[in-house]
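ugh ok so i messed up the first submission bc i forgot one of the chains. this is the corrected input, ALL of the components this time, i swear. 610 residues overall. if the numbers dont match what u have on ur side tell me asap before i send this to the collaborators (the ones from the other lab, u know who)
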Amino acid sequence: MGFLKVSLLFLVAAVLGQSQGSVLNVQTDQPGHEISPILWGIFFEEINHAGDGGLYAELIKNRALSPKRHGMNLDGYAVVKSEGVDGRIYLSTDHPLNSVLTTSLRLNVDNAVAAGQRIGVSNTGYWGIPTRPDYTVYNASFYAKAVGFTGPLTVQIESKDGSIVYATAQVPQITEEFQRYEVTLTPTPALIQNPSIDNIFTITANGPLSADTSIFFNVISLFPPTFKNRPNGLRTDLAQKLADAKPSFFRFPGGNFLEGNTIEERFIWEETIGDIAQRPGHMGCWGLLHRWDSIAPEEMQPYIDSALNEIEYIIGNTSTTWGARRAADGHPEPFPLTYVEIGNEDFVSDDYDIRYPQFYDAIRARYPNLQIIATDYVNTRPVPIRDDHFYPGYGWFPNNHRLYDEAPRNGSKIFVGEYATIDNINWPPQANTASAADDAAFMTGMERNSDIVIMACYAPLFAHLNDLVWMPDGIYFDAAQSFATPAWWVQHLFSVIRGDTYIPTDSDANEGLPAEKIFHVASRKTDTNTLILKIVNTNTEDIMIDAVTLGGIGSTQGGTMTVLTGGRWDENDLQEPFRVSPKTQTFNVTSNSFSYNAPAFSLTILEIQL
Ligand SMILES: *[C@@H]1O[C@H](CO)[C@@H](O)[C@H](O)[C@H]1NC(C)=O
Ligand SMILES: *[C@@H]1O[C@H](CO)[C@@H](O)[C@H](O)[C@H]1NC(C)=O
Ligand SMILES: *[C@@H]1O[C@H](CO)[C@@H](O)[C@H](O)[C@H]1NC(C)=O
Ligand SMILES: *[C@@H]1O[C@H](CO)[C@@H](O)[C@H](O)[C@H]1NC(C)=O
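and heres the new structure output, hopefully the right one now
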């Protein structure tokens, strides 16, 4: 402890005229390293229907009847028909849409359908087709052709039992050749005042129809209004939660998802771009067996080429082959790509030291400005940045918040690319307030060490409540609604309230502040001259800090105080999405020393105007 702090402590004690008690020193006059400007970001991986039926706003399940699905099937689809009408749907490979989407959905009318009756195909969406007050218009599109029928087709969003028709539109005519049809569905406003998921999407033909009628469909698609109204875009409530957290980076696409369960099922990025009618789909890897297949080192070149092409698609100029493809796909400007990670969690393999150099050399040669991230320790090449993952149980993060304090300052920088406290006891398992406080405790350590811990992101980001493969997750949702967990609020707060310069803090454990229960990190935001102090209490009881002292500061102008707290098991859910959420109030204290009672299981952020 330095002389200055000792004298300040003395001063506070003198001012308060009482015994010194527990003290948290904020060494405002001793600024340290720069806080990594990209410290807090997000990691998106396709797991728990994070993308399919999640962030990607497409509402139709099994849109392309993907030939790559295991046991190609009619998942999501059913026949919809008036009582007494005979007909069926099945997969047909005799009427391919094109060379990529070779399976179509065939509707067969088995007996003549009388006037006033209908038959068609329905889709359930991802556990329901949602209606919401803000879903005021939907764009539906599909490819269709028919034999023995020329239209019209009726397109609807209706309740599962057919009793409510939210929106309806017609395609007047179809032909014997596949053609794309598009309609706008505008729900009756009075019907969508409350969110509802008990609905289906239907495309039907009305009688009279003859018994030999066959109608073929493919790429059936339905979009509600999207984030920033982008065609083929993102779901508004989910994308908004990400945008609100002001993340500094976006890690994508994975994760195990990148690898797939087998080499054939890996993430083939070339098949995920362009016209949706030219995408064969991709098999998810969760809930299956990750087989840990590998390619012989001398057969790696095509995979390395594919990675280089992917980078070119992202950052190449429009004179390059793949840069031109990006422009054709609607994004002429390169994306801001800075970091490329080679592999995923390769501590499970024993030949990373062979494969890492293959990618490393190829990427460095072509893109010397890109920074490489390794997923494990490597001897054969430099590791500029290493990706560490942590999924510990409750209590581990507080005990290990000093993990990076002693890490070498001249070694690899650290990217904590996945972390979350796993405390899955209630159903559905999600982050409760106490586990969120645990995460926050570790995050104070990452911010304190952000001279070497340059980036961190919570994982997994999203979970559909009907497909909980991995828990906990940051943001949960059903087909219509969503909520952030306390853990996501911790992420949000650490990210939106940041300084640029680290300010050292220390607390006096001997005087009543239990070092293993109370955590803190401070920084200064230079442009606004704000001191930011984050205090985490992981204790079952409140902890009184008798004096928070601001070293080298006479008085302040006060500021704001934001607190996230709740009971040990408190969680959020669709019914009460903001049960545990941050509350901000004015912080009127202007003294350079004040007491603070940190609530049990809490994150407090003081923003003090200097
Ligand atoms: C829906 O169609 C309208 C009009 O063509 C278009 O402006 C809008 O971007 C489309 N929205 C989506 C999500 O495709
Ligand atoms: C585009 O990128 C290629 C490959 O990196 C380079 O050779 C070429 O000079 C660039 N063109 C422009 C206009 O920058
Ligand atoms: C880092 O510094 C330590 C102590 O000076 C030294 O032993 C070590 O070799 C250095 N490591 C690197 C990667 O330069
Ligand atoms: C802080 O000051 C504001 C403005 O003077 C006042 O409205 C507020 O009630 C005060 N807050 C507290 C916690 O005393």
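quick check: Residues 77-225 form a domain with the Jelly Rolls fold (CATH 2.60.120.260). that seems consistent at least. Residues 1-19 have pLDDT under 50 and may be disordered.
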